Amino acid sequence: MARFILGLFLLCVLAPPGAGAQSCTEIRFARGASSGEVTGSAPADGVICYMLSTGAGQQARLRVLEGNNTIFTIEGLVDAQNDYSFRTKARTYRILVGQLMRTARDQPFRLHVSVAGGRGAAAGSDGPAWRSMGGGITATSEGRARDGRTRAIFQCRAGGPAWATLQLYGEPGPGLPLRDGERAQVTIAIDMRGGTHRFEAVLTRHDGNDQWWDAVDAFVADFLDAFAAGRTMALVDAGGAEVVRFDLSGSADARRAMRAKCGF
Q: Which among 26, 152, 185, 262 has most CB atoms closer than 10 A?
């Protein structure tokens, strides 16, 4: 059985005089991908500007993977963040990357950007439902649900016990916890050629800049093998109602990435 339990600085990244006129680099993903990484050096004085074009109602997330002193501002939306998720509008966002505490030299950073659901300039809709991303000591696989609003992320860490996390973002159907810290029992139903395999799960609700549900525990081989071989994966609430369903194209590659990186 696989069970899931998936100093605040009020310092803004202020654009220097004339920043409104500075050139911005457009963030574009590879064809069929819904995420990618941006690397560079946060300047000692000033910011780097990027542009991200999205469609309406998509779920975007920006997360600093490397660069302890790196933060970003999304103009007109949020200041001084290192991990932020939001529901998009049909527009182009300006993202300013800089240093939280100014130092005497530029500092390298790595920023992960994802846009799931719908269709926009940055996120393509072609390709498999699940995609794998590598980096450092973790393996991450991201999938988008059939509803176009919900996405899930599996992540495992190398060099430790054989476990992985599942994080659920977006607006899945009813049946999940509605308050911060609340938990709910669900069933993960994976449809396969030989029938449906079911795994019990406990999802926990978290409220921050956005809401999400997550689970952490031993994703043992039988669950991961079913995930890799399955056709679809559904979350079903305690009353038997389907909460959200994912197609599993690309899940075999995701499984191989977790095995290669994390050893299970």
A: 152
